[in-house]
Design brief:
This protein is an alpha/beta fold. The chain is globular and about 75 Å long. A nine-stranded mixed beta sheet has the order 13-12-14-15-23-22-21-18-19, with helices on both faces. Strands 5-2-6-1-7-10-11 form a seven-stranded parallel beta sheet, sandwiched between helices. It has a three-stranded mixed beta sheet with strand order 16-17-20, with helices on one face. A hairpin with a 5-residue loop joins strand 21 and strand 22. Helix 1 (about 15-30) packs parallel to helix 3 (about 70-80), helix 5 (about 115-125) packs across helix 6 and helix 15 crosses helix 16. The protein has 19 helices and 23 strands. The structure holds glutamine. Glutamine binds near residues 355, 381, 382, 405 and 460.
Length: about 550
C-alpha cells in the first residue's frame, strides 16, 4: 500500500515548500524507499508554459515535454523520482479535465460541482502516482493555506485520508516563526493561526516544520505544540540557510525529520545513506579556487528566472572545487553601457534561453565580447541563436543577419521558424518540447565534454539554425558539433580556435544534478577555472571582420 505525504504551507509564500518537499523525498529515498513527487498548483493557467518569468520564474521542462513548475526542478535535483506530466497539475488542468468529461456526457446529467467532481478529479491525480512499486507519494500543495484558490486542493487531501486510511497519510505543514526585532522575540502566533485555519477545514497536521532565522527554543516548540495540537517532537525547526540550499536535507536530519516521518507512517527502511551528499557539502564549503561567471539575460534581475542555470553552474563548481560568483547581468544594460563596463573581469559568460526581441542586441554584444577575448562561453537555446547571429554579422560578414523571431524581413535569416511550427497559432504547449536524441560529431569540444556521441537533451523552442548557411559558417570556423537524429536540426555549434565556445539549442541545465554536474556545464566551468588561473589564456582573436 502506497503511503501519502501532503505538504502544505502557511503564513506567507516563498517559504521553500518545494525545497523542503524535495529534501523529504531525498531523505526517504536515501533510506531505500521508492518515492514519487508531485506538485498541485492552484492557479488557472493550464501550465506555466505561457506565463512570464516575472510571474512564475523559470518554466521547468521534463523529458516528456511537459512544461512545469520550477519546484519540479528541485525534485529532480534532489531525488531520482521519475517525473512526468502526471507530477504537476494546476486548477486549470483539473477543471479542463472535468469540463471535457462533462461535454462527453460522462456525468449522466448530474450537476457538476466543486465537491465532489473537482475534488474527485484531484484525488484521482494524486492516487494515480501510487502503485505496487511505490512506497511513498509526496504531494506538495502550492499557495498558502487560507487562499481562496487552494481550497479545493485542501478539501481533496482532507478527503484523501478517508479513502486511503488515516494510517497511510501524513500531513506536513510548513510555517514561518518570525523574529520580531522590536520585541526581541520569536513569534508563534502566525503559526497558531495558520494551523487553526487548516484545522477548521478538517486537516490536523501531523508534523510542523517551522522556518525561522534563529534557533527555535524548547519553550517555543512547546507553545506551538500545545496550541496546534501536535506532540512537541513533531515541531521541527528549519533554520534559514545562507550558505547553500543543499544543506537543507542535512539540517532536517539533524532535527530528526526523517526518523519522525518513518515512525509516523510505520515504514520499514534501511539506514540513511548520506556520505556522498556530505562530501558534496564539504567540497562546497572548502573550495580551492574562486571564479566568476556572468549570466547575461533579459530577466537577470529576477532570481528565479534562470533557476536551473544557476544551480547547474553551482554543480559544476562543486565538481571542480571552485566557488563561483554569479553575476546576473541584464542584457539591455549591455546595450546601454557596452560590454566592457559590465563584463570585464568575468571568467566565463553564459547566455541563457529567452523569447522576444528585448535585450537580444545586448546578448549579441556580450557574445562578441566573449568570442573575441577568448572568454569561455556557453550559449543556451536563444543564447545559441544569438551566437549564430553574432558570428554571421561579425565574422561571415552578413551584416543584417537575424532571427525571423526578431526581424521577419531580415535579408539573412540565419535563425528561422522550425518547419513543424509554420502553421501553429496556439501558444500553450506547442513548441518543440522535451527530450530528443542528438548525435555529437567527432573531433568536437562537445564530444570531449560528453565522452559519448549519442546524447538525449530537453528542448523548448520554435526557431532553429537555418541549414542553408551551414557551409558558409563552416568555412569561417563555426562548426556544427551535433545534429538531431535524422541530421535535420542543428543541436550544438562551436567556434574553433577558442578555449571554450559552445552553444546548444537544447537546455542542458534541466539535467544537471548536484551529485552529477552536466558535462557541458562542467566543461564550461573547467575552462573558466583555467582561464582564471591563466593556464590557457591566449591573446585576442583576430577573426572578426572588423579586425581584418
Ligand atoms: N525564442 C527562441 C525560440 O523559440 C528560443 C527559445 C528558448 O530560448 N527557450 O526558438
Amino acid at each position: 500500500m502506497t503511503k501519502h505525504i501532503f505538504v502544505t504551507g502557511g503564513v506567507v509564500s516563498s517559504l521553500g515548500k518545494g525545497l523542503t518537499s524535495a529534501s523529504i523525498g531525498m531523505l526517504l529515498e536515501r533510506r531505500g524507499l521508492r518515492v514519487r513527487m508531485q506538485k498541485l498548483d492552484p492557479y488557472i493557467n493550464v501550465d506555466p508554459g505561457t506565463m512570464s518569468p516575472y510571474q512564475h520564474g523559470e518554466v521547468y521542462v521534463l523529458d516528456d515535454g511537459s512544461e512545469t513548475d520550477l519546484d519540479l526542478g528541485h525534485y529532480e535535483r534532489f531525488t531520482n523520482s521519475p517525473l512526468t506530466r502526471r507530477c504537476n497539475y494546476t486548477t486549470g488542468q483539473i477543471y479542463l479535465r472535468v469540463i471535457e468529461k462533462e461535454r462527453r456526457g460522462e456525468f449522466l446529467g448530474k450537476t457538476v460541482q466543486v465537491i465532489p467532481h473537482i475534488t474527485n478529479e484531484i484525488k484521482n491525480c494524486i492516487r494515480q502516482l501510487g502503485s505496487e512499486d511505490v512506497d511513498v507519494v509526496i504531494t506538495e500543495i502550492g499557495g498558502t493555506v487560507g487562499d481562496i484558490e487552494s481550497q479545493p486542493f485542501l478539501e481533496a487531501i482532507r478527503q484523501f485520508s478517508l479513502d486511503a486510511g488515516k494510517e497511510n497519510c501524513l500531513y506536513i505543514h510548513l510555517t514561518l516563526v518570525p523574529f520580531l526585532k522590536v520585541a526581541g522575540e520569536l513569534k508563534t502566533k502566525p503559526t497558531q493561526h495558520s494551523v487553526g485555519q487548516l484545522r477548521q477545514i478538517g486537516i490536523q497536521p501531523d508534523i510542523l516544520i517551522c522556518r525561522t532565522e534563529r534557533e527555535l527554543p524548547t519553550a517555543e516548540k512547546e507553545k506551538i505544540a500545545l496550541f496546534c495540537n501536535v506532540p512537541v517532537d513533531s515541531v521541527i525547526e528549519e533554520r534559514d540557510k545562507d550558505f547553500s540550499i543543499y544543506e537543507v536535507p542535512l539540517s532536517l536530519v539533524e532535527h530528526g525529520l526523517d526518523s519522525l516521518i518513518v515512525k509516523k507512517l510505520g515504514l520499514n527502511t534501511n539506514t540513511l545513506e548520506l556520505d556522498d551528499w556530505r562530501d558534496l557539502i564539504h567540497r562546497l564549503r572548502n573550495p580551492e579556487t574562486e571564479i566568476s561567471i556572468a549570466v547575461v539575460g533579459k530577466y537577470a534581475e529576477h532570481k528565479d528566472a534562470y533557476k536551473s542555470i544557476y544551480e547547474a553552474i553551482d554543480h559544476a563548481g562543486m565538481e571542480h572545487h571552485s566557488q563561483i560568483r554569479i553575476g546576473r547581468i541584464q542584457s539591455e544594460e549591455i546595450e546601454r553601457e557596452g560590454p566592457e563596463r559590465l563584463l570585464a573581469g568575468f571568467d566565463g559568460i553564459l547566455v541563457p534561453g529567452g523569447f522576444g526581441e528585448r535585450g537580444t542586441e545586448g546578448k549579441v554584444d556580450a557574445i562578441r565580447w566573449a568570442r573575441k577575448r577568448n572568454i569561455p562561453f556557453l550559449g543556451i537555446c536563444l543564447g545559441m541563436q544569438c551566437a549564430v547571429i553574432e558570428f554571421a554579422r561579425n565574422v561571415v560578414g552578413l551584416e543584417a543577419a537575424n532571427s525571423t523571431e526578431f526581424d521577419k524581413d531580415t535579408p539573412h535569416p540565419v535563425i528561422c521558424l522550425l518547419d513543424e511550427q509554420q502553421n501553429i497559432t496556439d501558444k500553450g504547449g506547442t513548441m518543440r518540447l522535451g527530450s530528443q536524441q542528438s548525435h555529437v560529431r567527432l573531433g568536437t569540444r562537445a564530444l570531449e565534454c560528453y565522452g559519448q556521441q549519442e546524447i538525449s537533451e530537453r528542448h523548448r523552442h520554435r526557431y532553429e539554425f537555418n541549414n542553408v548557411y551551414q557551409q558558409q559558417f563552416d568555412a569561417h570556423g563555426l562548426v556544427v558539433a551535433a545534429t538531431s537524429e535524422n541530421d535535420s536540426l542543428v543541436e550544438i555549434i562551436e567556434v574553433a580556435n577558442h578555449p571554450f565556445f559552445v552553444a546548444v539549442q537544447f537546455h542542458p541545465e534541466f539535467k544537471s544534478k548536484p551529485t552529477a554536474a552536466h558535462p557541458l556545464f562542467s566543461g564550461f566551468v573547467q575552462a573558466a577555472v583555467r582561464r582564471s588561473s591563466r593556464e590557457s589564456y591566449s591573446a585576442e582573436s583576430t577573426t572578426d571582420i572588423s579586425n581584418r
